[in-house]
Amino acid sequence: MVKTEDVSTMADSWRAVFERSRLVPPPSQTVRLAVESHLTQSHGFQLTLSRLTAAHLPQSQEMPEVEQDLTYQLRVTLFDRNHQHFFGRTWKSPPLRMKNNKMSFNKVLYFHTSLRLPSTVVVLELVLLSPRPDGSQQALGRGFTVLELFTNRPEAQAADGDRRLNLHHGSPRSLLHPLLKDTVDYSSLLKTIDGTHLDCVVKRHPALASMMHLLPENVLVSGDENIPGLAVSPTGDALLRPQLLKMLPFTLNRLTISLQPSLEKFESQLLQLINADCHNTKQPGPEGTLRTVVIQERRLHVGVHNGWCFLNKPQVVVLEPLASGARGRADSASKQSTAVKDSSTTSSPPQILGLRSSLELKMTNHQALAIVFQLEYVFSAPVGRETMLSVTSSSRAAFLQCLRWGIWCPFQEPVDWKGEEIQLVLQGGAKPNPHGVMVYSTEVSAKTQSSAPLSAPGTAQVKDTITFRLSSSLERKTSSPKASLRTKQEDMPRQRRSPSSPSQGQKNVSASSPPESPQGPGLSLSQLAATSRYPTISHSSSALPWQQSFPSLLHPSPLASAHQLSHVACSAVSNIAHLEMDLQREGGVSPSAPNEGDQLQELPFTPVHAPVITLGMNVPSSSSVSSRSSLAHLYSAGFPEIVDCSGQVAEVLDPTEPVTFDPQREEADLLQGNLLVFQFLAFTRIPTPGAGPDWPNNIYFTFQFYRFPPVTSQQLKLLTSAKVQHKTREPLPCVLASINKDGTVNSGSPGLQVQFRVDDGFLKPGEKRWFLRYLALHTMHIDIWDSDSLLLIGSTAIELKYMLRQGRPGVQALQEVEVLTTDYVGEDTPLTSADLGRHSASGPMTVHTVVRGRLHIRTGNIGCPVDPSRRRAADVMPSHSHIITPREVTSGFRGGSLSSRNVLQLNARNTAQAHRLDLDGDRGLLFRHRIRQPDNIIPGELKLNEPDGGRRKFDCMAAVHRREGKEGVRAAKATTKEAHLSRELLQIKPSEDLSKAQSIANMLSQAITTQHVLYASLGSAEYMEFVLKNPFNVPQTVTIHSDDPELSVITNTEEWFYFKALTKTPTPLEENMFHLEVGAPGPKVYLRPKESIHIPLKYQSFLCDHTMALQGPSFLPPGKGSQVAKRNLSNIVAAKTIKVTFKAEDDKPMAICQVNVEPTPHVVDQTFRLYHPELCFLKKAIRLPPWHDPTVGDPDATTYISVRCSDPNIICQTRMLVPGEPQDVYLKVPGSPSPHIKMFFVMVFTDKWMAAPSQIWQIYVHFLERVDVSCVTGQRTCQSLVLRGKQAVRKVKCFSSHPKEIEVDPEGVFVLPPAAVQELQLNVQPWRAGSRFLYVNAVDVENQRLVTAWLLCLNVHQPVLSKAFEVCVPVGGGRGSSRKITYTNPYTSSRKFLLRSDHPDLLQFKEDEFQVRGGESYTIGLRFAPSQSPGSVEILVYVNNLEEKTEETFCVKVNYS
Description:
Blueprint: E1 2-3, H1 7-10, H2 12-20, H3 28-36, E2 43-54, E3 71-80, E4 85-92, E5 102-113, E6 120-131, E7 137-148, E8 161-168, E9 192-204, E10 221-222, E11 248-258, H4 263-281, E12 294-305, E13 315-323, E14 351-354, E15 359-363, E16 370-382, E17 396-408, E18 421-425, H5 442-448, H6 460-463, E19 465-472, H7 525-530, E20 613-614, H8 628-635, E21 651-653, H9 663-667, E22 673-685, E23 698-703, E24 711-712, E25 716-719, E26 733-738, E27 752-758, H10 768-777, E28 779-786, E29 792-799, E30 810-825, E31 846-864, H11 873-876, E32 883-884, H12 900-913, H13 921-927, H14 949-966, H15 974-988, H16 996-1007, E33 1009-1016, E34 1022-1029, E35 1036-1042, E36 1047-1049, H17 1053-1063, E37 1074-1075, E38 1084-1087, E39 1092-1099, E40 1136-1143, E41 1149-1159, E42 1166-1173, E43 1178-1183, E44 1202-1205, E45 1211-1213, E46 1224-1229, E47 1237-1245, E48 1255-1272, E49 1277-1284, E50 1290-1296, E51 1302-1305, E52 1310-1312, E53 1317-1324, E54 1330-1340, E55 1345-1357, E56 1363-1369, E57 1377-1384, E58 1391-1397, E59 1403-1405, E60 1409-1412, E61 1417-1424, E62 1431-1440, E63 1446-1456
């Protein structure tokens, strides 16, 4: 046993640091003001003291004139000038001598504070030091100055930069004078010392964020001070770039506390003293109510302290009385009452206080680091005097009292405590302690209580001890998980506790590390029943049986874990606790709030969504790995050539060489049209465990190029040639051939070719440079599916930069890319079982990347000439202006009908002069269709209002529909078309009952309406300014109202300035232009007579259509590509017409701005596919890469990262963290029934005003029925599933993702009647242990559509081994080794057995089955395959019966040497 002595002798280094770190807390009013101003996060700052110039320092008569023994010192303290309060700790510089009236300090001070208020200042005092006869020094102030840190805006940062501060006469104590209480400028009341100033520099220091838990707030320190937990810097300044020492986990167990003379007498007499004190301070009640105070709980605070503060908030555990002979983990069922009764009524043996479980602590190896123990009792007393209430009554009040405390420095030399029992002496009385609380003194008890004293004076410190064991948790990793403690972590102001107690403990679960379940801290529910003035919260979670190891963060990649599973976080086979809470933090509840209805205070916590999807995890390799024979076989298939417009073969680019991109060369290209070609040539199979060698047989692709609609290809068959002689192990690429609708293979040219035409007819004005940037920087995501089972094979991505022509007539490139998928590998499961020399990694469950195959794809770009006569009017228009200027209507009403159609034509002529509408805008609005009128028809010549215009109307519409028919839309029958056109005329024909007044009002409204066409995409903000003019001779207050919230007025001046600079709009900007009123329809603006102002408007939509095609291949005709679906745009924002009305004071419209939103597709940067059990919430985190804005020069500048989701029913949030920490996007998606697929978009913004998304992610969530299966390797387990019929008869076949491990009965196609119930039998026989996730799909074979999908969550255990063998096999030579094993039939009758192996590629049997009589033996012949590399592997041999139940399991260790 290791016994410790007094604190003063045991922890000299800790005591020295603790004595130096005593500080004065700031005023509570200032702290409350900072919290109300949302200044809760502490920021780090750096103060550099350069030089002091003192030309005319005042001379004192108290000091001698001899200056050789005099030195000067600079003292720095924080000061609150509103409350005239010095706080923190005074920093003192080393003594310096004055040379030539100058002193160079060259000291750098550091501190962090959350009190970023104008009242917080720094006071610097110059002190003259002179020696005294006794050896001490006398200090005399020579002047002081005040440094202001923050501006009058509380949200502003520190005023960085150089400062020159003038020194004032007197002492800093003059700042406490009542005349200076509310003074902001001290210079008017303080006299300045001429020619004396101090040069300093103050600036922010974000690097302190990593070590704020080692140093309390408001403490000024220099970089050379001793801060335990911080690594020593070779430069001498450890705080310039702080480096933390490694934190090691330790376990504290077998903790007991012994109080003298005994626990019963100690507590009994303690209660007598408290009750006597209560009796002296209250009116005496009825007889029997004297001893009303009882002990509610006995608690122990355990924390790690570095002399400055606690590294983490101390853990609080509940102690229970144990028998004096019981130590460590006692039976948890034998809990005694927490209320202590009179000692005269107890007859139990002597007791001690003990902890029934263990504590987890994290410490670093530093001699000044100490473990602090504080014994605290919770006492309960009734609120009233009427009666004595029970312990658990809610009308009792609780109060706390510290009884003992002690510290122990585990790394104090030369103590060796490993494996030993430590006994520590506990302290009491009025001594400074880390918790800053008053401690119960036994000496006072001895004086006030004459009979049976607790202990003699001076003996309590010897006998009151705490005993425990401390061990490293790293050495105990293999032990069984501990039981969770009843623990609690307090985050509240403690009664009788000084504000100097640490409040910056970092207990957040780090987003960059896997979740853990630390033991402690917590409390029982009795404290919550005792009183609600001490808000507590308890977290009880099971230890996670696995941890996620994350790779290093990379930049956004093309694949980015596109199809990671999301159901691991709720798998029953691994009892993973999924923690979740609201990201919006609620305001704290005042401790003085009423007892009833108090809210629990939120603890610092980071939601855990494991495993986190990290961008850049999976990057497919694009380098060619095929051999020359494989490439020769591939090119002999006869794929169509990619030729340019002159018939020449396009130039071939090498994907391994870099591509130079010159935008000017692209813009100067004469061939402005581009025909983008994608040829899917072949697919190379890679053997997959659990699947056959011919899997997959048929595939199809899904992808999306630029802003074209998503493409789903038809079925493609993998053709293998039997004529090719292929002797190597490398698999040959299988040529792809399209499958017709009748199931036959297309005999035409092999492969699949998809074309996209991008020319001036497709691109918007000014969009071409964005398209070229898309090709240069983007990678296109491709999903590969099994068209039979509709299971995802994998995903890949191809770089599009090889499609840049750079002035050439045509280019092409052949790329061979890996098809990747992610697989969850549980404990004791190697990634690839066939790899030799790799042992089974026993560790946490991780996500691995598995290569499923290689895709051979050829990309090309053919330049096409553009006919200038066929270009649209909008294409030849200048770039779109952001200023909307209404035109004056110079011509009056020329007579005629008052129909809305005539007014529309009149308004169209006015808006056409402003160049804001294209030539067919009026027709598009008139017929409510996106169709153009013929080029030879001019709007002014239609004459639709003539008496004989009915026939002309039919002719006009027929011509328009014929034009649309040429573009691929088949015309309907003549009678149907005539009826359809008649209905259209009825829609636009004015009503006969429309009154003349309404027609006139409609005409006037259209006359003041200005139309504006807006091209909008998802998430992008479109900025515009409307020129509003006051036509009256009197001032007007105009109210602006928009009938759609997506179009709003920009009222923030900073936001207005941002968009003006972004769009380069050279118009005036005016601050505080709008007046906002609560309940008003919109902002108000004041206009002078005849004044014109610019009203900033912004349109931004985060919502879009989420329509998606059914899962399964399509049957597009060959050669059509995506042109068929080109006009059926989906997943874009909705087309709409928005009116912004400007109403005068009489509530009549002064002007109307009608914005016609034309939707355009957006670019998708990342695609994710997640699988999740049906009808339950998906909670997932996606890790963002470390984005930095290159336009900002300051590397420490904050990047505003915000996210939005296109589905309002999905919660998508993120929050800012300290610099350098990874940032996650949290998703919470409501569940849907199987096999529904939910698709949505997530927009990530990196600018403050969210002008345009930096990235757009497309996320698919596949919801499946979940089935949990527990099984053993090598043994068959049966599981039943239920398949319910829908509304129609279907022919269904079931497929599994691992056919060799899962068999489905019925195996073939079966008929599923409507509303019928079909039972499916699953035979699961896995070969790898650990947690596995497999899939089963029920597919409609006629329509190739998914009926139902199941998610199988397997918990596979290792079998019980019967025998173990070892064999050596020589490496090389091409020959294996043969061995024999004898098996004896244990039964009395003849039995037939089956032989199975988990490594069939390494071990083969002479006979796969054998029959042996009862009690007889059989020799099993084993044949081991040769290996070309040394290593060892363990092979399991299963002896199964005919039902595939394992009889015996042998383990054969094969050493290849």
